[in-house]
Amino acid sequence: MNPLDLIALARALVDGVIIGNTISPTQTELRRAVSCAYYAMFHTLALSNANTLIGASPADQQRWAWQQTYRAADHRPTRNKLSRASLGGRFLTAIDDFGEVFVAAQQARHSADYDPHSEFSVTEVTSLISRVESVIANFNQTPDDIRRDLAIHILTNVRTD
Predict the structure, then answer these.
(1) Residue 139 binned pLDDT confidence (cut-offs 50, 70, 90)
(2) How many CB atoms lie within 10 A of CB 66?
(3) Taking Cα atoms as reference points, which of 109, 125, 121, 115 lies closest to residue 76?
(4) Residue 49: phi, psi to the nearest 5?
(5) Which of 24, 53, 137, 157 is 20 to 30 Å from 71 at the Cα level?
(6) Phi and psi at residue 58, in whole multiples of 5°?
């Protein structure tokens, strides 16, 4: 799944392009846009984990190990491991920022997907999409060795003893 396609889909939903709504997006469109923005982050991380640990070539991406690594992250533990407290200053600012927006995007997605009474404004969703797009761009510029360390942090139980 291409994270940038998810960002483009989120923007299209907010712009009313998908359903052809030219006035303003519906709450359903805004909710789906929030979900797309979160999943853009999740798939960015999954792709980074697999590419840095297994390899990024088309041949690598066909390997069982790559596919398993891509799918290894679980949503709640990933959120917990991306919190500032868990990162503990071990990573670059781009990783801290990614973690902060990941946590916020996941909370928004939970509201969008599971709270029938939550409502979103166009401004709120557009801001979330922009923040997500920005931190993904910065994350993708982070050196591979740092992203590899993050993958280990996300996918393993870190020992402190």
Answers:
(1) very high
(2) 20
(3) 109
(4) -55, -50
(5) 137
(6) -55, -35
Given the structure tokens 């993904």, which residue do they identify? 136
pLDDT at 85: 67
43-69 confidence digits (pLDDT tens): 999 999 999 999 999 999 999 999 999
Q: What is the mean pLDDT of residues 17-43?
A: 89
Residue pair 37/129 in contact (Cβ under 8 Å)? The answer is yes
DSSP string over the chain: --HHHHHHHHHHHHTTTTTT-SS---HHHHHHHHHHHHHHHHHHHHHHHHHHHT--SHHHHTSHHHHHHHH---HHHHHHHHSHHHHTT-S-HHHHHHHHHHHHHHHHHHHHHH-TT----HHHHHHHHHHHHHHHHHHHTS-HHHHHHHHHHHHS-----
Torsion of the alpha carbons at 135, 137, 138 and 141, rounded to the nearest 10: 150
Domain boundaries, the chain: 3-155
Q: How far is CA 83 from CA 16, 39, 40, 70, 98, in A?
A: 33, 17, 18, 20, 10
pTM: 0.93
